[in-house]
Design brief:
Blueprint: E1 2-3, H1 24-40, H2 50-56, H3 63-81, E2 90-91, E3 94-95, H4 97-103, E4 116-117, H5 124-136
Parallel strand pairs: 1-4
Antiparallel strand pairs: 2-3
Helix pairs in contact: 1-3, 1-4, 4-5
Length: 137
Amino acid sequence: MATNANPFDESSSSKDILVPSVAHADLKSAWAMTNEFQVGHPGQQASIGVDLYKRACSPLADVDAVLRRVSMLGRVQQEAEAGHFRFPWIHDGEPEEVVFKIVATIPMVELQPGMVHEGFPINVEELIRQIKAESKA
C-alpha cells in the first residue's frame, strides 16, 4: 500500500513523521564532506561512516536528520541533471547557499522502511518556490 509522502498535501497520512529541521551549516558541511569523499573514490561503491558525519557537523546536530536531508538533496540533484525538472541552483555539483538554507528546514517526510513512497519526501514545487522567493529577498 502506498503512502502519500507529500507534507503539503492535505490527504497525507496522519502517520507521516517529519524529518527534523537542521542547521544549514551542518547540511552544507555534510554535503561538502560527501562530495570530497566521492572525488577521492571515483567509481567505487563505498560508504561514509556516521562518525565522519558527526565530525563534519556541529556538536548538537541531529546527524540522522542531516544525513536524510543530504540524501534528499542528492536525489534532487540527480533528478534535475536527468532533466526531470529545472533546478538551476546547483553549479558543478555545488548548491548555492540558498539551497542549503531551504533544504535544511523545508518539511520532509521520513521514509519508513517497508513502506512504498511515490515521489520525493518533500514537495519539490514548494522547494523551488521557496528558493526563488529567498533568492529575490
